[in-house]
What does this fold into?
Amino acid sequence: MKAGVFWLLLLLAALASAQSSAPADLQLLAEIDKLSAVDNHTHVEKVKADGEKDTESDALPCPEKEPALTPAMARSDIPELFTAWRALYGYPFRDRLPEHLAQLARTKHEVRQREGDHFPLWVLDQLNIEIMFANRIAMGLGLAPPRFRWVPYDDALMYPLNNDALKAENSDRRFFFEREEALLTRYVKELGLRTLPATLDEYLKTVVTPTLERQKEAGAVAIKFEMAYLRSLEVRSIDAASAARAYASLRSRPLTAADTQAYEGLQDYLLKYLAREGGRLGLALHFHTGFGCGSYFKLAGANPLLLEALLDDSDLRKTTFVLLHGGWPWSREMASLLTKPNVYTDTSEQSWLLSVDAFAPVLRQWLEFAPEKVLFGTDLYGADEPIGSEAGAASVEIGWEDVGWITSRRVRDSLAVALSGMARDGEITRGRALEIARMVLNGNARKLYGLADSE
Ligand SMILES: [Zn+2]
It folds into this structure.
């Protein structure tokens, strides 16, 4: 097939899947597809040996013990997977017959062998993503700058006391707090220390600040908080003396229900300290906001409005806050939060949970409020459950490249629908529509993180 015809068919297919009451301007969509992107949020995997697992692509992976229902748009039976496989691996079928999956598994393996350590770069080129932020515990094989940039996790620094009472709440919390404790132990060890210091002041000076400085030196562009999986996003203002007292007096004993408030106050104090240090070091703070995975996830505590006290803190005006996932289902609240000077959001997660029809109006509202504050993000990750394994036939892993292909396709389609509607309704000119697309896909992130302009 001629390349031009292929692209036209691909566009029509994308448009058919993206069809809404107000369709996209095809020419604008074609121009959007040509723009390379900066992906603000992913859990990209390192290059693995056959059978190897990558355990560092998320500090708090979705708990497996008592899983929640996977939203239907993110399940492994979506037809968009066929389109992704065709684009990436030339998969000519629209079915999951065992012999077809076996062929796909061979092709995937061959491509990985052929590309070797360059496989992640090959994927970036297929997805037209120039720079990808890797939200990982540590970077790994094949994930080097300048095209991959690190976003480490820093929740662990907020929980220096005994967390047994928090773990007892349910199996998810137990799993999460065990992971956070292991990460804090790792950070402390990396600094050459054996145990946590006796006072809060020493903890801040010898553990918290040096950890952030090490991350900055290692190339981090931002630091990530999965706080909504561990506690509510609501933060109070706590004075230094109370926080110091809580740290010193509660450090070496199991906590009781009566200690809960004091521990939470200490966490609030530590978060504010981390936010100030992030601002000083030029590290933006990334927060998970809105819907999360696991059957015990407390959605009400993940409302981005709960962060307002932190966002409005006059001591933190030098800190940039990126509220990931658009805070869905609080996307309208997010639109209004974007008018605050230091608040940004991205398209990640929503593009995996929502159809183009559902996401385009959300995006349009954000763009009508603050087009300079919206960032492209895919939240791509490697799925755990291979397709076909249950049949005992060939199994095919849904790789991060497959998820990334689908989610970036949905963002580009949603952007085209939203901007076409705005241009059609006379809110913006056609030229401005393309300019906004460039900002969302690339320019806003470059400006925010101080990345050099692309050639
Ligand atoms: Zn994520």
Observations:
- The beta strands are 37-42, 129-135, 148-151, 222-225, 284-288, 321-324, 343-346, 374-375.
- The pocket of zinc ion is lined by residues 41, 43, 135, 379 (CB under 6 Å).
- The chain has one domain: 3-449.
